């Protein structure tokens, strides 16, 4: 059984006297943390997806340019 002692001037934080660990016992704060973390993960994934799409578009443009150069060169001969 844990022997938890409240941390001075910190609501919801307790010190486990056997391990000296700080434990957050505030459920609402934890839920807010999880929501923020999920939001950040979604934002990071969206940025990665957009970056990948931009890379694909650049590759497509390079391919189109190459094909156009081939057409122009073949029409000049």
What would your notes on this structure say?
This protein has one helix at residues 27-76; strands at residues 4-6, 13-16, 22-24. It has 77 residues and is of the alpha+beta class. The chain has one domain (4-76). A three-stranded antiparallel β-sheet has the order 1-2-3. A hairpin with a 5-residue loop joins β2 (13-16) and β3 (22-24). The protein is rod-shaped. The protein starts with a strand and ends with a helix.
Task: Itemize the secondary structure elements and their pairings.
Blueprint: E1 4-6, E2 13-16, E3 22-24, H1 27-76
Antiparallel strand pairs: 1-2, 2-3
Please give a handful of descriptors for the protein shown.
single chain, 77 residues, alpha+beta, 3-stranded antiparallel sheet, 1 helix
Q: Calculate the terminal CA-CA distance, rounded to whole Å.
A: 88 Å
Largest sheet: 3 strands, antiparallel
Identify the strand order in the major beta sheet.
Answer: 1-2-3
Count the domains: 1
Order of helices and strands: EEEH
Mean pLDDT: 93
Uncertain runs are none
Give the helix proportion (percent range).
55-70%
- The radius of gyration over CA amounts to 28 Å
Query: In percent, how much strand structure appears in the residues?
Result: 5-15%
Which structural class is indicated by helix and strand composition?
alpha+beta
Task: Please tally the β strands and state the result.
Answer: 3
Question: What's the overall geometry?
Answer: rod-shaped
DSSP summary: helix tally: 1
């Amino acid at each position: 059984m844990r022997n938890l002692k409240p941390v001075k001037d910190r609501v919801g934080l307790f010190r486990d006297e056997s391990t000296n660990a700080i434990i957050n016992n505030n459920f609402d704060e934890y839920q807010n943390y999880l929501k923020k973390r999920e939001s950040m993960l979604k934002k990071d994934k969206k940025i990665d997806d957009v970056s990948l799409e931009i890379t694909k578009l650049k590759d497509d443009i390079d391919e189109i340019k190459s094909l156009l150069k081939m057409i122009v060169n073949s029409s000049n001969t």
